[in-house]
Specification:
Number of helices: 8
Helix content: 25-40%
CATH topology: UDP-N-acetylmuramoyl-L-alanine:D-glutamate ligase
Amino acid sequence: MKKIVTFGEIMLRLSPPGFQRFVQAKGFDAFYGGGEANVAFSLAQYGLETSYVTKLPKNPLGKAAANELRRYGVNTDSIIWDKERLGIYFCEKGASMRPSIVVYDRADSSIAKAKKGDFDWKEIFKDAQWFHFTGITPALGPNVAEVCLEACQAAKKLGVKISCDLNFRKNLWTSAEAKESMTKLMPYVDILVANEEDAEKVFGIKAENTNVEAGSLDVEGYKAVADKLTSSFGFEMVAITLRESISASDNGWSGILYDGTQFYQGPNYIVRIVDRVGGGDSFCAGLIY
């Protein structure tokens, strides 16, 4: 059975009940999650041995986040603890033509203070076959980017397969900052995952005949993007999710996979959205599985 290790930031998400707006809310529903944590949740539910690596505050919120991971069968033995804080974000669910709104309060979180040497990667990757991280984690700061590089170097040395979801976040860094940092990490990555605009935002590789904002996506253009990414960095596989935004309640969703010689295209699904958060993470988990 595969042992998968994921590394990143788990956060407390606070959302108004139902489809209330922030200005209407008199209370918030609490959830715990994050890019790599969501992948770990899914893979554990698929029956795989999954370990999550992060840094959490030694307070009730940090312990609650760790408890949530354990509740879904994710191993938390590699979590380290400090006296900082847990990152928080507020999410107002969109409905129909009204988009979702996200407000972050994650500065100075415990994982954002992580540094090289904090984690024993040789021990963490013992018996592991796969390591997954996203572009969100190195975006937390230059020190965390160094930890990501340290992890990738250790995984590669130990023969562990590495996947990365580019997951560009404009609220965390600029395209120039992302390109500089992610370019250093890409030589270690075997499987790259991106959405319809990540490659353009991070590496300047744009799909032709495509207008993401208008929801017009040309599959042939993305095949060219996957080919350019593979040529540039030597990935074994590139997977790109293609999401067409019909409304905040309905999306068209598909994806392509390129293995260096052949393209595979999935069917296009029209999906009624229950919870928008974590869709790309579930795609990553399915791909790893």
